[in-house]
Amino acid sequence: MPETRQPVSSPTTPLEDTPGGAGRLPHGFRMDTHSHGEGQLVYAAAGALATTTERGTWVAPANRVTWTPPGFQHAHRFYGETDVRLVVIPVDLCGELAEQPSVFAVSPLLREVLLALTDRPETRPGAYDRLRAVAIDELVEAREQSLHLPEPRDDRLRSVTDRLHADPGHNATLAELGRAVGASERTLSRLFHTELGMSFHRWRTILRIHHGLIHLTGGRSVTETATACGWSNPTSFIEAFTEVVGQTPGRYQAGLRNEIR
């Protein structure tokens, strides 16, 4: 993810002091690696966030919500001025949700429930629990849209992915990257499939989509984003973005503008 010179938070922020929190965080804000005894939903009502664990990075634009089960070490980074909403899920309710960090599509109902849980204090006994139960029901039915970018353990493969992270727009072939790190193209191709569960091309495409989401959230045009992320033309970027994210870059940006309150 692109580096910025923004403030770094401590592992605990005021958002995490209550069962439901809301706040606006500046572009580039980070929550350092930490874990929770309970589950946690983090939703960017505007902006985008990336959640990183030892299993890789998940990116959630404003039409997705991140889920982190109890006990997982994780860090967050926020892109654009982010209207972030945090909902804690007690341990006894976590069994209904995924056992690993995930990102889920946000239905119109789920969005309104997440906003209600974090916008206002509880005025009637049990109201918060009832709303939270609706959120869990919606998540159980929601389609997982993880935009997950797994990270390798093998040193040779990690050398390649580190280079791609540093410059996602670089169009080096796998053979060229292999020569730079001292591994054959065949070996690296095998490692991408066995360690990361996808091809080199697919992994780099998702990496570029991660960066594309961040650039679009920050206000860059579709053409500027396509160039910055390594696509030869905007059409190729639009096709890849739509296949991975489920909507065109233009529609995604229009949605961001509509969701800012």
From TrEMBL:
Sequence ranges assigned to domain HTH araC/xylS-type in this UniProt record: 158-255
Key words of the record: DNA-binding, Repressor, Transcription, Transcription regulation
Lineage: Bacteria, Bacillati, Actinomycetota, Actinomycetes, Micromonosporales
Transcription regulation as UniProt keyword: yes
Region annotation (Disordered) ranges: 1-31
Name used for this protein in its record: HTH-type transcriptional regulator RipA
Residue spans of biased composition, Polar residues class: 1-15
MF (Gene Ontology): DNA-binding transcription factor activity; sequence-specific DNA binding
Keyword field contains Transcription regulation: yes
Pfam families, alphabetized: AraC_binding, HTH_18
